[in-house]
Amino acid sequence: MKKMLFVLITLLTLSASAFAEVNINTASQAELESLNGLGPVKAKAIIDYRKKNGNFKSVADLDAVDGIGEKTVKALGKEVTVSGKTSTKAATTATKATTK
Q: What does residue 57 show for φ and ψ, rounded to 5 degrees?
């Protein structure tokens, strides 16, 4: 029974994280850093690019940011969006990361 419960919780956690999205047009540095493959330098580059050039029209536009290439854009996949709010899960992860 405990094994079954563990598997169920694990699957729910994984599926919830699969739907976590960070809006690259509104995300804070901490929220951007919560994404796989984005550290402080790339997160700051995204924010600087956004300030200079305005909002991203599509996720593929990240390719224009210094230090971010096609490989990184592809790796981010469904973790990022250009509309809507940053999901609660992503924001919570970012908050936990900055308070450690």
A: -85, -30
| Residue 78: inside a domain | yes
Identify the domain containing residue 74 by its residue range. 29-90
CB atoms within 10 A of CB 64: 11
Question: Per residue in 51-91, pLDDT tens?
Answer: 999 999 999 999 999 999 999 999 998 899 998 888 755 54
- With 0-12 / 13-18 / 19 or more C-beta atoms within 10 angstroms meaning exposed / middle / buried, residue 89 is middle
CATH code of residue 74:
1.10.150
Residues 24 and 34: their CA atoms lie apart, in Å, by 12
